[in-house]
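Dear colleagues,

As part of the handover before I leave the project, I'm documenting each prediction I ran so the next person doesn't have to rerun anything. This entry is a single chain, and its sequence is reproduced below.
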Amino acid sequence: MSAKGARIDLKGLSRGELESFVEALGWERYRADQLFAWIYRWGLVDFDQMTNLTKVKRRRLGEVACVSSLVLRRQVTSAVDGTTKYLFELEDGEHIESVLIREENRRTVCVSTQAGCALGCVYCATGDLGLRRSLRAAEITDQVLSIRRFLHSGETITNVVLMGMGEPLLNYEQTVKACRLMNDPDGLAIAARKITVSTAGLVPGIEKLAREGLRLGLAISLNATTDETRSRLIPLNKKYPLAKLLSAAEEYARATSRPVTFEYVLIGGLNTSRDDALRLAQMVRGIRCKINLIPYNVIPGKPYRRPNRQEVDGFMELLYPRCPTVTLRESKGTDIQAACGQLKGQQNSFL
């Protein structure tokens, strides 16, 4: 239900749920397909604009239903690389951030799945907020729909990464529902291989996602090669240590025939040693995967530093060719606090 009285929010409903909705109104089932297309393909929120429905039907929809929409509070664009960060307000007054990343012919939207985050990863600004609440599928999907309206002429969204605020697999049902909505060919029509779910290592969620049949991309924030260091950075590691996590990653790659991406944030002096690089190469051996190295993005008040060029180059040289695919990802939007680990969902993060 929506916060708007007793009206039901049609955004976030699956195709099957929309069919049940129109049948309850006594309408033909194909009306659900019309509504689905208006909401997700065309991004409409006003029933009066849904012109293949009669005026009587549109009036009835206005009485019993609504189509929610996020409220844009602020946006800022990087002068360095064109990345844009958006601050959205939810119906209950909570705030989330989303990011549009422009890179060559790709337009990637980084979406949030929760307002805040419960995991408390010590290198991440979002973790300092604690968990405010999880998002509904409508709110997750609407970040993509909203940003699509702001694109330049000729631009289209090519990729979606669920790497914003929150842990997607702690909001499992709504996250998967949103991914199915984004993937639907009659809606946003974003291919599953172009949608990536990121996790700090929630093993049961990884195992469950492997059985969904979606074949989404999976990115795992690894960030350390020993349980001692990883537990210091990611408290969740105490519950799901590296051995269990790597086993779940291997299962996911096998079940989906998709390589897993291991994200490794390089933190100067902490996880960038020769031993770390050699352990990492050994750890992922036998797992169909690629490794993304991400130099740490400095967050004010955090006691960590960005690695220098010598640390980064030395780490890469040891990893490759021991690992099949290694990339160095220079984060976009660092000048506007829009890069990995920097999202806060607060007005002051735009200053």
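The chain has ten helices and 14 strands. The chain has a mean pLDDT of 93.

All the best with the project,
I.
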